[in-house]
Amino acid sequence: MIAKAIKRYERISPRKIKRILDIIRGKGILEAKALLQFQHSRSKRPILKTLDSAVANLKVKIGTARIDDGDLFVKEAKVDEGPTMKRWRAGFRGSAAMIKKRTCHITLVVDSYKPIENKKGD
User: Fold this and answer.
1) Which CATH superfamily is domain 3-112 in?
2) Calpha distance 82→9 (Å, rounded)
3) Buried b (16+ CB within 10 A) or exposed e, 61-90
4) How far apart are CA 30 and CA 38, in angstroms?
5) CA 57 – CA 105 distance, rounded (Å)
6) How far apart are CA 55 and CA 18, in angstroms?
7) Rounded CA gap, 29 and 34, in Å?
8) Overall pTM > 0.85
9) Which of 82, 15, 27, 19 is CA-nearest to residue 51?
10) pLDDT of 42-75, one tens digit each?
């Protein structure tokens, strides 16, 4: 069973997020969290929040069945480009230079190694 979480309009360049997502793609949840914890990048915080959200979505989706974080892995991790904010500042010889403030959308899909059976009742 899979669950997905999307963080939209994050104020970090997609290129910076992609470097971190390439590290955790295909890893177990516990290993991915450990790898994110030791990254020296500002982009680790929204990825960690999105990962926690995807795990929580899966736990809500399966209902009363118990699942351990060790049984889950990151099935898909991708980043898409969001809208770019355009700002202006003074440039060379009185001209205007454009500054692009990029945004991105982070998508994480979490799956379990073994099939999950929902317990009826309880």
Assistant:
1) Ribosomal protein L22/L17 (3.90.470.10)
2) 6
3) ebeeeeeeeeebbbbebebeebeeeeeeee
4) 13
5) 18
6) 20
7) 9
8) yes
9) 27
10) 999 999 999 999 999 999 998 878 888 899 999 9
Residue-averaged pLDDT of the chain: 92
For residues 71 and 82, give the distance between their C-alpha atoms in angstroms, rounded to a whole number: 32
Task: Tell how far CA 91 is from the center of its chain.
Answer: 36
Amino acid at 77: A
Alpha carbons 52 and 54: distance in angstroms, whole number:
6
Measured in Å, how far apart are the chain's first and last C-alpha atoms?
A: 20
Q: Which two tokens stand for residue 29?
A: 């949840």
SS3 assignment, position 110: strand
Residues 75 and 111: their CA atoms lie apart, in Å, by 6
Q: In whole angstroms, what is the distance from residue 79 CA to residue 83 CA? A: 13
In angstroms, rounded to a whole number, what is the distance separating the alpha carbons of residues 45 and 42? 7
